TrEMBL record:
Domain of life of the source: Eukaryota
GO biological process, one term: regulation of glutamate receptor signaling pathway
Region annotation Disordered: where it falls in the sequence: 1-25
PANTHER family: DOMON DOMAIN-CONTAINING PROTEIN FRRS1L (PTHR46902)
InterPro entries: FRRS1L (IPR042789)
Protein name per the record: DOMON domain-containing protein
Length: 222
């Protein structure tokens, strides 16, 4: 299943549009205009980030393959940005071999496409994207950017917690509506907890502990 919007050569956000994939029998849906910038601001604070080159900021340079994730009530909100004449992708894997791919692609007719795919190390096989909400995107030359909420990342224990995954960043060609084998640019050595609401969680625990300590001291005085 794919989501299309019209290309632009300016930095003006794209207007939402609806189009269909020629290789998909599943009706396509609307991809909204991405307003604002995808940025590395708040990385490690309110969201988890991975990038190539390390610590690059997609708001400063297009040549920055970047993903971020943070938990929300509806799932995990993900951002993806990078430079490619084909596609960029973030892949979440439980074993670093297979996984779920989220793909932001540029078709040959200069339209932006969002696709979901199964990853098996050597190939990406497109599948339904019915587990994705609120897809937005922009295409500026060969700079691709997409944001969306993935619902299937949540585990059954908590609506605010996500299963840890290995994170993979990749690029590739997108020719005749077909995804080429991914060229992996980053693969984490350990699993990343996308459910972390950032450094604010430990801080909250510390504050709660301090409140308990203070209340104990106050009541101990009486």
């Amino acid at each position: 299943m794919s989501f299309n919007t019209t290309s632009t050569n300016s930095t003006t956000p794209l207007n939402p549009t609806v189009s269909s994939s020629s290789n998909s029998a599943v009706p396509s849906a609307t991809i909204g205009a991405l307003t604002g910038s995808i940025t590395s601001d708040q990385c490690g604070k309110t969201k988890i980030c991975k990038a190539v080159p390390k610590n690059c900021n997609p708001a400063d340079t297009g040549d920055c393959l970047f993903m971020s994730g943070k938990s929300t009530l509806g799932g995990v909100f993900l951002e993806l940005s990078g430079l490619s004449s084909g596609y960029i992708a973030t892949i979440l894997s439980s074993d670093n071999i297979t996984g779920d791919a989220y793909v932001c692609a540029q078709a040959q007719n200069k339209t932006l496409r969002f696709l979901r795919a199964d990853y098996n190390r050597s190939a990406l096989v497109e599948k339904s994207a019915n587990d994705i909400d609120t897809i937005k995107g922009s295409l500026n030359g060969s700079i691709l950017q997409c944001s969306f909420t993935a619902k299937n990342i949540l585990n059954s224990r908590s609506k605010a917690a996500a299963t840890p995954y290995y994170v993979i960043l990749a690029v590739g060609n997108f020719t005749n509506d077909t995804l080429s084998a991914p060229d992996v640019r980053l693969r984490t050595d350990s699993k990343v907890d996308l459910g972390l609401s950032s450094a604010s969680a430990p801080a909250l625990t510390a504050v709660n502990g301090m409140l308990i300590l203070v209340s104990g001291l106050i009541f101990g005085m009486y």
